[in-house]
Amino acid sequence: MAVRTNKQPGRQAPSDERGARLRVLPSVDECLRAADRKPGWSEFRRGYITLIVRRALDEVRQAIAAGQAGLAGKREAMLEEVMRRSDQAIAADQPPLKSVINATGVVIHTNLGRALLAEPAIEAVEQAARSPVNLEYDLESGGRGDRDLMVEEELCALTGAEAATVVNNNAAAVLLALNSIAEGREVIVSRGELIEIGGSFRLPDVMLKSGARLREVGTTNRTHPEDYVRAIGPDTALLLKVHPSNYRVVGFSAAVELRELVELARPHRLEVMEDLGSGALIDLGAYGLPREPVVADRVAAGAGLVTFSGDKLLGGPQAGLVVGKRELIAKLKANPLKRALRCGKLTIAALSATLRLYLRSADLGVSIPTLRLLRRTVGELEAMAGRARTIILERLGDEFQIEIVASTSQIGSGALPTEELETRVLRVNHPRLSADAIARHFRGARPPIIGRIKDGAFQLDLRTVEDPAAFAVSFPKGLPLAS
């Protein structure tokens, strides 16, 4: 019995053709020999060329496997294709960390690097990057110094604490503090404060890694003083309070305030630690913003340790700051984990410069970019939106419809989670492009423009745009985004 087949005489099946093409792909060594003959490539290190060639080979291999037409089945042609793609890759090669325009309206955007640094902090980082600095060198004695001293005096002056230390982020600060004070012992915390924040960071997980044992009290929505009193025992090392910087429990709820918790701990000779998260150094109410707990107030209320972030409401670099009683901070500094979690010179330089601004600047609302963006008025945003609309329409063409509409901005990164700021946005529509497609086009600009999709439309929030003229750079005139 004859077996019928769709295969035509003299013609390979597509899979056979792909297999034949894959078999004639040049080797890495062949490509490297070809690279040696290319003008200008001698300036690159061998490892870099090898990386580029391997990537190009992988691209060609994937294109063949996908059945892409136009790839000849001869070895010379394949080698030429690999080298062509390698040339393109080198020409387009840029550092992966790129400047973008934040038009999301989220002022402290974790995915976009959080707080913008003030100019003095940028200058301090540049100086520290360009030359040796006295990071751990005592200029007076000529001996070894302490990098914490670069920021400790300013932190103590700003918070009223006896001592301070700094690590690479606030999660590290919590980890170091709990490990130093409560390893192998109990830490009592309210169930209503066992938070999870961005990136699946969960406080109980950090506590577990610290070696402390978690002792939960109260319920999710209500915790009372007697809950702590009943839980305190001979194995208790610390009472922990966590400021709900990225959530709020409203309605039928109750929590024990810090000052009351300190009073509960005193007869038992226990300390109270508070994780403030966002860590405002000043009263934001003075700038017309919702009030967050001020670090100095928590120290004055009796907290033995207070941890908070450097790159949220403080407006500095990513860092975890710990302030509090001298004997407790000394335990943190003596912990071997401190070296593993310490900050480098660039962070110390930026943080020191930022803290000096808090001590010296007559107008922090102008000096600190985070505060400047947060306190922008609706009038300012209206004017910016008008300029931005004109610039974008000139470059993208008449098919785009751009409206100025009222909306709200978020502070971001867990800071003041229930508060929204009135803003103005550009709502961008196109008759043939979806909101997702428009967003992709804007991300493809140079520099990329990151907006948001809300109510089914792509939006650009002007609150987080430093200058509307930046849109002109992203979209050169005569190069429309979409046809």
Account of the protein in words:
- This protein is α/β, with parallel strands linked by helices and 483 residues long.
- It folds into three domains: 14-92, no CATH class; 101-108 and 374-474, Aspartate Aminotransferase, domain 1 (Alpha-Beta Complex); 119-363, Type I PLP-dependent aspartate aminotransferase-like (Major domain) (Aspartate Aminotransferase, domain 2), CATH 3.40.640.10.
- Helix content is 40%, strand content 16%.
- The protein is built from 19 helices and 15 strands.
- The strands form four sheets. Strands 2-10-9-8-7-3-6 form a seven-stranded mixed sheet, with helices on both faces. It has a four-stranded antiparallel sheet with strand order 11-12-15-14.
- Helix 11 links the parallel strand 8 and strand 9.
- Helix 6 (149-159) packs parallel to helix 14.
- The longest helix has 20 residues, at 46-65.
- The radius of gyration is 29 Å and the shape is globular.
- Residues 1-13 have low confidence and may be disordered.
Present the secondary structure layout.
Blueprint: H1 14-23, H2 28-36, H3 46-65, H4 75-92, E1 101-102, H5 119-130, H6 149-159, E2 163-167, H7 170-182, E3 186-190, E4 196-197, E5 201-202, H8 203-210, E6 213-217, H9 225-231, E7 236-242, H10 258-265, E8 271-277, H11 295-300, E9 305-309, E10 320-324, H12 326-334, H13 337-341, H14 345-360, H15 364-367, H16 369-374, H17 378-396, E11 401-410, E12 420-429, H18 435-443, E13 449-450, E14 452-454, E15 457-461, H19 470-474
